[in-house]
Fold this protein.
Amino acid sequence: MAATLTPTNPSQSFDRQAEQARVRSERRRTAVIDLAVTLGTVVLSLALAFLVLLILGKDPVKAFTALLTGPLSRINRTGRWIEDATTLIIIGLSVTIAFRARQFSLGALGQMYVGATVAAILMIYVPMPPVIAIAVPIVAAMAAGFLIGLLPGLMKSYLGANEIVSTLMLNEIIVRFYDYLMTNVFTPKGAQALRSELVQPNSMLARLGDLFKANLGRSNIGIVFALVLVVVVWVLLARTPFGYEVRTIGANERFARYGGINTKRTIALAFALGGAVASVAGVHLLAGVHQRLIPGIAAGLGFEGIVVALLARNNPLLVPITGLFYSYLRVGGEIMEQEASVGIEIVQVIQAVIILLLTAQVLVDWVKTRNRRLADRG
Amino acid sequence: MRGITKIYPNGVRADNDVSFEVRAGEIHALVGENGAGKSTLMKILYGMERPTSGQIYLKGQPVAITTPHEAIALGIGMVHQNFMLVPSFTVAQNIVLGNELGRNGFVDWRASAQKVRELSKQYGLRVDAEAVVDAIPVGTRQRVEILKALYRGADVLILDEPTAVLTPQETIELFAAIRQLVKQGKTVIFISHKLREVMEISDRISVMRDAKMVGTIEKRDASELILARMMVGRDVIMRINKPPAKRGAALLKVRDVEYSTEAGVEALKRASFNVYAGEILGIAGVEGNGQTELVEVITGLRAPLSGTIELDGRPIARLSPRAVRQAGVAHIPEDRLTNGAALPASINENLIVDRYEDEPFTRGGFLRVGAIAHNGDALIEQYAIRAPDGTLPVGSLSGGNMQKVVVARELSSNPKLLIAAQPTRGVDIGATEFMHDQLIKARDAGVAILLVSADLAEVMSLSDRLAVMHNGRIAAIFPDARGLTEEEVGLYMLGTKTMTQAEVEQNW
């Protein structure tokens, strides 16, 4: 348009206050619909799982009762639930940091092993006074997790290496090396089973059962650490310049670069901080759950952080809820296996069905919000 | 279409009780500013969006159109702004895709190509059925899109801003094709905000503003001025008011800058020029002659191979984008969707990307949410961004308002040098006017402005001095943009004429 015109106020026909009120009420409505859809999805996925059991000719009512009420049926099972939730919340937070920068880091598994190993060296062999015997190994583990997370981060940022491949391969290396250390270093000479000595008593995370005088299994004050980390990660992402950089890169990396953000450094740091957080989960497994190193201490946890983060829509404040939800399913599944003699494979199929439907909905929403336009160009 | 209302889930009302009627066999233009609701209305007709309320009638019968498939079945076809073609397929393959002519479960490509050739001939839409889409120009791709719709039996064709991507010559051909289509009984709905074209091609014109239908008039009752008034809701004056420039010191000095792309193409060849405080230096040129690279080299997004760039006496070549910004350079990028804004992020957050670490947005290592929101509210007010508040995602705004967010951020950084690349591309009259006004205001406040625009009329009327780029070189610099003719500048743009190095140097 070649023509240009004298300026007047282009917003003359725009009633901002009325618009605000309308947008607010519309948002409220959307939130209610969102919640309803989520709940609907849960019900639907449970119905599908029920169908699977029915087809298999198992007693679906009994199996389902085990799945849905199992973690609350006995106090020690509740303990198992809290124990598992602690780990899932921490690795969920770890994944959230990288996901926010739109980096698909799968390194949490290896980082847990690194955290557990580094902490174990201090906790098993170095006697320390109370509190310090926990604080120092955690800091050391986080530093190690930071470095081991930084590696794929730097490779992605500065060399363009695909982070999915590099983190998975790094996990492979770490797990094998951990196995080697288990056999040749940590297991005392002449021991019957492949396991390390117990950590020093001062390094053990207090069991909740001892605090509350109840049989809460291996659950421990690690859950408090996890909740503190929730707040820390939220503050980091929502209230610091670094968090702004991460979120802006996640929203549009080219824009971030154009705006002057050092995108390479920020992406590498996001990987590293995710590693630092995930290593805390390793410390929890070591000092809280097993109180010693065992083979495959973080086995089966490789992708669980991703599920938790996806369900929480990468919002750290929702991670405790989705972590508790998902560990409830995991523990419920274990109990279903024991009580209804449903094979572990079927348990996992049912879990997968539920998670698939829920994450699919999350993904749909993700795409929808990305493509949404209030008003069209036109 | 009667009483159509569309409210998006995030609460924005794109269409408000809109009624719209098209007669068979006419060319009906639908005009309005960006964000007026034209595209949404047509997406509803084509089944891509569902109306919140309202009813569509086709030949007097109420119809429910919930998917594009149903629209196609009813004889409604749409050609989008962004073409939806498979680049590696041939023209014929693209056209028949999804409706292949086949035999025994196999696609008969020869018959398909034959059918495409027949269609092409029937409607006067020249295409080479065997050509691969990747290799054909934009204008031809558009004809392929139109043929695709016709192949599926469209009687009503919706063309969404079809001329936005075309050269003048291609536009002439498109208009000839549209007239041919109508002659053969088709109906065409033509979405545009270019009034000159609307007046040229349409039989009737409907104008939308603020999600409402302002009215429909016959072409014989319309003029560009009447339409502009209907679109903007007030009188518009069709010229640029610009006091003479008060030129200051040379703020930006670019000397012998060379740059090659990753592919090894020499994009900039010994580019040299100055931009002075208080002036607008325009850069004219056919797109792809090095303008994009020039801007990105100055702003630190790309590193030059050789040469120097000085801002206010300080070398800035090869600095990071942040350091260049801190030196006093603001940049309105040519592609605001991919570079200028983070669409999922809020308006508030988009407005601080260059200053989030500074007071008052960060204090003691933490972001101050209140200060960020306050900054957003102030800029929304000051730059008349049409948004209820700063928490909305930028992606939910119309093109013109997105551009205002970019401009608000860049101008409020109090730059010494403002680089504006294609600042009015794809925005409507009101926003264009606003943009030009802002540029002149910044110039009068002593900012050095480098304006890159493919719109020759714009760059000629807005600039104080005018440079022309051709093939990576500064082909000419005119000390006074007034008194130049488009024809003369055009000769330099096409490389027919080039100033000698001495002549250019004289006007640095």
User: Anything to note?
Assistant: The first strand of chain B starts at residue 2 and ends at 7. Chain B touches chain A through 92 residues (CB under 8 Å).
